């Protein structure tokens, strides 16, 4: 499996294109559509785009809102990050959908200009991120991934189609982010035993094959040294939705082919969610 190089120009191009895709997905919605429930607990389509707006606003240096006790008591708020996300949403929910879209486009235009102005040293500077302390360029891959997943959230809620072939770079980066954490998931959540070999055959748009070797710890590998103990074949977008906790595996099992050790494969499929 070949991943997309994490380079400043690539991250900038992908983020700007992904923000444009989110704008297209939300353009022309009426207020009823804006308030349609999304796959994320407690969030509507409006809330999904408001969340992206909030994160990009924070990255521009805007101060965080105060987190009230009511926010922490919400059933879908599980930690401090979730509480902060919800506090931001509270500040944006009084807007109409059209006003939110205007704000999103203004914020992301500023973010695009800020990215274009960064020097090489700034791109390589390390800082805390959702995946640990990493260079800023690596952090921005998590932003591509997050925005790509949220495009799926919006289109799934509305019953529309996400971007097609032109989204290949963004989807590749999103899948790179997902597969980077896949080894830990199949061991910690899926119970893959030491010594096992696994293959995911992802089909459809942005098809790829992902091999995992478990030798003390699980690693994503270019190839396996022997046949896989279990092979899991499914569509890439379904894979993303399962990893993101957007759908439950049980109703989707007829869309997933497994071979080899069926018990192991199905246990992994049922426990792929790790990003929500």
UniProtKB/TrEMBL annotation:
Residues 175-265 form the MDMPI C-terminal domain. Residues 17-154 form the Mycothiol-dependent maleylpyruvate isomerase metal-binding domain. GO terms for molecular function: metal ion binding. Signal peptide: none annotated. It comes from the Bacteria. It holds the Pfam family MDMPI_N. This is Maleylpyruvate isomerase family mycothiol-dependent enzyme. The lineage of its organism: Bacteria, Bacillati, Actinomycetota, Actinomycetes, Mycobacteriales.
